[in-house]
Amino acid sequence: MPHTTPVPPVRAATRRRHWGRDLTEVAALFAAMAAADLIADLVNHGPDGGLLLMTSAAALLAAAAAHVWWTHRRSGRTPAAAVPEVPAGDADRREDAEPTLWRLRTTVRDTPGSLGAVCTALAGSRVDIVTLQTHPLAEGTVDEFLLRAPAALPAAALVLTVADAGGTDTWLERADAHDLVDTPTRMLTLATRTALDAAELPLALRQLFGRCTIRSIPAAAGEGPVQDTLEDTVMRLGDPSGGTITVQRDHLPFTPTEFARARALVELDARLGVRVPDSRHVVTLPEGNELTVRRAGPEDRTAALAMHDRCSPATLAMRYHGPTDDADRYLDHLLSPRFGQSLAVETASGRLVALGHLLWDGDENEVALLVEDGWQRRGIGAVLLRKLVELASEAGRESAYAVTRATNTGMVATMRELGLPLDYQVEDGTLVITATLPSPAALPWAAARR
User: Fold this and answer.
1) Are 210 and 352 members of one domain?
2) Domain membership flag for residue 389
3) Which of 155, 174, 395, 419 could make a disulfide contact with 444, Cβ separation 3.0–4.6 Å?
4) How far apart are the first and last CA of the chain?
């Protein structure tokens, strides 16, 4: 789209020229009337009226020819003020700007040439089709494009181009370099991640469908197997570990093809069963003790219950924000890989002394820590929190929050030691601290390690 520069002075000058031309035309009209009256008198009373008429006609023809010649001569020399010029720098920047990546989805009729019409219209706007997927429906076909469009082409113009070519229910959002991966490669990558770690299933579904909300709902008492269903913008999938996984988008309906992809990932997870990566990291405390930080899972429930028994009621109440008798029943949920990722800290003898949890809460993420009383204030909480934040950042999450009591100065200090932007919300003695997360490489301690 050409760049337009406002030119008020040119418009004003054009308006002044129009007034001058009108006055000239009025004066010429009066002069013509006077000349016509004079010629009529001469013809009626003069000695040779016919010769006078022929002479006047010849003079008028010569004047008309001169006027045509003068008009053509000036047409090739338009005054500079009448044609606004686009600054060369702006035009160059528009032409040289990096193309914009878009994800576009539209519905076309299931007839020959419908898709071709959309592709031809996009080509006419200098839009490059990088990838194309088709989702057959009962009526029509949903076509999903990854487009590389000129930077000067606005989103509204792109949508109108598709609509004029026959596309309906068009949806458009910005894409990035990660979307350049083709769909089969993306599915294989997500399947591999899911196969290695059961906690990756909700993350894989989110990355597969983009902007959506994933929730895991535990099974109710006596509830049987859940049937997989697709209802417009909501998918409900039976969780292999019990309960339901709900995938929801705000506006864009899911297609049967997307439903089949989601079911394939869930079936893969069900066939492989519970699995936790055997990743271990040894840390040395200031006093010289070596501790191992590793992933935790349902198999650690017995050790976690023993640690609960060694914790004071005050420590358990600070962690679980409720009666200490209820602390044990939370462990099944916390250690399940379906609801997040957990880390355990154990001594050289294998004794569990701390737990950290990163819990998926829809689009948000909660971090929580529990350190046995005898091991508190030794830096274990800081190590755990950094590891949890790294996991959240690697999963593409933009923030993580911790819920604690306003009197828990230890947790507040640990969050501040992250060196990340923090937001504090206090209500009825409960403090919610939210940290804004950068990319994994931009985390303060990651930069320090380099």
Assistant:
1) no
2) yes
3) 419
4) 45
- β-pairing verdict for 244-248 and 234-238: antiparallel
Domain range spanning residue 18? Answer: 8-82
Q: What is the mean pLDDT of the chain?
A: 80
Q: How far is CA 97 from its chain centroid?
A: 20
User: Burial level of 438, CB count in 10 A (0-12/13-18/19+)?
Assistant: middle
Q: Is 45 left (phi over 0), alpha (psi -120 to 50) or beta?
A: alpha
The DSSP secondary-structure symbol of 277 reads: -
Distance CA 70, CA 59 (A): 17
The tens digit of pLDDT for each residue in 131-146 reads: 998 888 888 899 999 9
Task: Judge whether 293 and 280 are in contact, CB under 8 Å.
Answer: yes
- Secondary structure, 3-state, 116-141: HHHHHHHHHCCCEEEEEEEEECCCCE
**Tokens linked to 148:** 């590389």
